[in-house]
Amino acid sequence: MTREEFLGLWTEAFRNQDKDGDGMLNVTEFGDPVSFKHADPSQDGKATFTEFTKMYYNQFDGLDKNKDGLLTVEEM
Ligand SMILES: [Ca+2]
Ligand SMILES: [Ca+2]
Q1: Which ligand is nearest to the CA of 1?
Q2: How far apart are the CA of 68 and the centre of ligand 2, in A?
């Protein structure tokens, strides 16, 4: 899948997880305190949509071993 498709999945997840609809995820909404640290680099207890997608943007780069801008099943 492309980076756009990958981020699209997480955009959808963000909307579903943002229960109170304030455009940010707190640790309760996020559900995983360990990964939440990566989603909230500013450590203010809120992961904004920008922080959230940035985390997955970087994760895409980490997973895309051959740097062709596509994630294959093997790479995931
Ligand atoms: Ca929220
Ligand atoms: Ca790749």
Answers
A1: 2
A2: 5
